[in-house]
Write a structure and sequence with these properties.
Helices cover about 25% and strands about 30% of the residues. With about 170 residues, the chain is of the alpha+beta class. Helix 1 packs across helix 3 (about 125-145) and helix 2 (about 115-120) crosses helix 3.
């Protein structure tokens, strides 16, 4: 997997508020000093248990696959009593893909088979199926549940002696 290095642009401000970056070939990204949110219960707390850098697949740019490299924190939540990953709004249920990439995969699955989409996007078939399920769940929530238009109820005689079964049809 190749990486595209973007050139650095010199700062135009020389005041005390200018940002200093070390000279080098790559730019290191660091997480902002902020409070972390538990991915399960949503409790906000300061600090984190540990952190690691993860690559997350995003929408492609032309024929180039785009990966976001971000630092993911794990939180030792006092409410849950467990160590869980920080909740990030832009990640899909599968934490290796963004929501917009999952939406794109779901849209492609409406036009092509899961196998064709997996081959086109260089993904595993099971990954495409899971991302398509997430897309369909969102679409079903958006459409709502349709109510029955007509309800039919009938009594059916099973045998002599007034034994009946009630049959309902929607």
């Amino acid at each position: 997997m190749g990486r595209i290095r973007l050139p650095r642009f010199p700062s135009t401000t020389n005041g005390a508020r200018s940002v200093w970056r070390p000279q080098g070939t790559g730019c290191q990204s660091h997480t902002a000093l902020k409070k972390t949110v538990c991915g399960i219960c949503g409790r906000v707390q300061s600090g984190w248990y540990d952190r690691k850098v993860r690559q997350v697949r995003d929408l492609s740019c032309g024929d180039t696959r785009v990966y976001l490299e971000l630092e993911v924190r794990r939180v030792d939540c006092r409410s849950c009593g467990k160590v869980k990953r920080e909740g990030l709004d832009f990640l899909a249920d599968n934490p290796f893909y963004t929501k917009r990439f999952a939406y794109f995969v779901g849209r492609r699955c409406r036009q092509a088979t899961n196998t064709d989409v997996a081959r086109e996007l260089h993904l595993d078939w099971h990954t495409v199926k899971e991302l398509d399920k997430q897309y369909m769940e969102v679409q079903l929530k958006r459409a709502g549940k349709p109510g029955p238009k007509v309800i039919g109820i009938d009594e059916v005689s099973i045998r002599k002696g007034h034994t009946y079964r009630i049959v309902g049809v929607t």
